[in-house]
């Protein structure tokens, strides 16, 4: 009997869960040759359209395909209903928190959030203190990572509020499944996701500066060498807006303009895929060549909307994560619908002592870490790796949190040896503007290495199509 929740099977490998029965029956009819052929076709198409992921410092090459698995992850309508309500609640509270810390700071004054956790946070931006943004929305696009553990309960693993990526893979995975296996979509009523770019554009237009009736929206990229450049170009093309780099924009008379072949065109909303530090060399990193000199002054004047807002990253720092349930209670007077994973904050004396005493059984993360880097998975680490990490934690305890090693749910996945369970997570994409909305589903990431709990693409993970059933 597995110690993890199996998405397809109710008792290990014999009883198929009801919502997977049609899929499993179809799967059993497929020959290994058919599957191999379809997987090769998917790889060819993905490579042809340029769906690659850059891996920094990778000796094998700068770009690779993210492996795509043809066994979809299926979630019932009832399960999704609960997740959706929890996601709306959580992102609403996070937006209220970010507005609060850059204005009245009531959560700090109430003693719920320690001041040093906020104002000494590397992602806190004093430059935007007191600046008003349209509709008080800061995290216009949020990617909330969910994991299923225990008896099947969903937990929030982390909040991604700066420049969350992956939505292009959600959309392309669905297109690929519909292309390769149209017969499956005759057996299942799967909620659509293809309208996400339209929702995103409507959302971005809804938060344009006050008084702008027909806003011009652009997607701002660091350039073609960025790891997520495919996604930047993809979303711009899907929304029908311009993809720009910092050098394509300039500030004049406290407005932002885009250089075009017909002359300058005013820009009202920038969906930026560039970190805060690189946005404006006059206000942040002086040597940045990616940003727009003077952008912050236009932002201060309320004449440009940046999505996500400057300073949003303070709310997705892993040292802030443990406080989100209290944010929900404080701002919304509600109990959290989605639970956090239990977390020890190494900056606390007792939590530090517990963490150091239990390193072989815990997952330890850098509070500013991302992409699966800067973390220790105790049960999968050698004694030498654990001792090395112990010294790092002792030297800088405030830089780490620890969590139990969750038995992430697993979904059958095609690997070299055939079909085998592999651990997965889910990243739904939540849009905040005049309303909070999302398409049904998200990006399911899968850890392709046997026993691995690290699903990140940069660490060798793959993706699956995520189906939310309509009934």
Automatic annotation (TrEMBL):
Annotated Circularly permuted ATP-grasp type domain residues: 73-447
Leader sequence residues: none
Pfam families (alphabetical): CP_ATPgrasp_2 (PF14403)
InterPro entries (alphabetical): ATP-dep_Glu-Cys_Ligase-2, CP_ATPgrasp_2, UCP005522
SUPFAM superfamilies assigned: Glutathione synthetase ATP-binding domain-like (SSF56059)
Protein's recorded name: Uncharacterized conserved protein, circularly permuted ATPgrasp superfamily
């Amino acid at each position: 009997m597995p110690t993890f929740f199996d998405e397809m099977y109710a008792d290990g490998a014999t009883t198929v869960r009801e919502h997977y029965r049609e899929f499993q029956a179809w799967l059993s009819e497929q020959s290994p040759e058919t599957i191999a052929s379809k997987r090769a076709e998917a790889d060819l198409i993905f490579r042809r359209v340029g769906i690659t992921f850059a891996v920094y410092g990778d000796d094998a090459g700068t770009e690779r395909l993210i492996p795509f698995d043809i066994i979809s992850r299926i979630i019932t309508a009832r399960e999704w209903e609960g997740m959706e309500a929890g996601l709306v609640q959580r992102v609403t509270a996070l937006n209220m928190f970010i507005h609060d810390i850059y204005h009245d700071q009531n959560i700090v004054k109430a003693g719920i959030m320690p001041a040093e956790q906020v104002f000494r946070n590397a992602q806190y931006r004093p430059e935007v203190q007191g600046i008003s943004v349209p509709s008080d929305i800061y995290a216009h696009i949020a990617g909330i990572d969910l994991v299923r553990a225990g008896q099947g309960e969903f937990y929030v693993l982390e909040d991604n509020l700066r420049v969350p990526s992956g939505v292009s893979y959600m959309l392309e995975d669905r297109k690929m499944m519909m292309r390769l296996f149209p017969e499956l979509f005759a057996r299942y009523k799967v909620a659509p996701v293809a309208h996400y770019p339209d929702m995103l554009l409507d959302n971005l237009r809804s938060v344009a500066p006050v008084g702008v009736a027909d806003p011009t929206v652009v997607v701002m990229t660091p350039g073609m060498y960025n790891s997520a450049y495919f996604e930047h170009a993809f979303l711009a093309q899907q929304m029908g807006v311009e993809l720009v780099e910092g050098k394509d924009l300039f500030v004049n008379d406290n407005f932002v303009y885009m250089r075009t072949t017909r002359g300058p065109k005013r820009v009202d909303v920038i969906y930026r895929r560039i970190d805060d530090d690189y946005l404006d060399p006059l206000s942040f990193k002086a040597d940045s060549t990616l940003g727009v000199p003077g952008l912050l002054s236009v932002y201060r004047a309320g004449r440009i909307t940046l999505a996500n807002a400057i300073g949003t990253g303070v709310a997705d720092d892993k040292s802030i994560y443990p406080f989100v349930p209290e944010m929900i209670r404080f701002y919304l007077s509600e109990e959290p619908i989605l639970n956090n994973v239990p977390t020890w904050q190494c900056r606390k004396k007792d939590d530090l002592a517990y963490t150091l005493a239990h390193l072989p059984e815990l997952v330890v993360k850098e509070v500013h870490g991302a992409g699966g880097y800067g973390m220790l998975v105790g049960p999968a680490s050698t004694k030498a790796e654990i001792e090395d990490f112990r010294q790092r934690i002792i030297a800088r305890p405030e830089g780490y949190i620890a969590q139990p090693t969750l038995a992430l749910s697993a979904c059958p996945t095609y690997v070299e040896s055939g079909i085998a369970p592999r651990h997965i997570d889910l990243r739904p994409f939540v849009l905040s503007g005049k309303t909070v909305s999302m398409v049904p589903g998200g990006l399911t990431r899968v850890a392709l290495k046997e026993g691995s709990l690290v699903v990140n693409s940069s660490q060798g993970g793959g993706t699956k199509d995520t189906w939310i059933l309509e009934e």
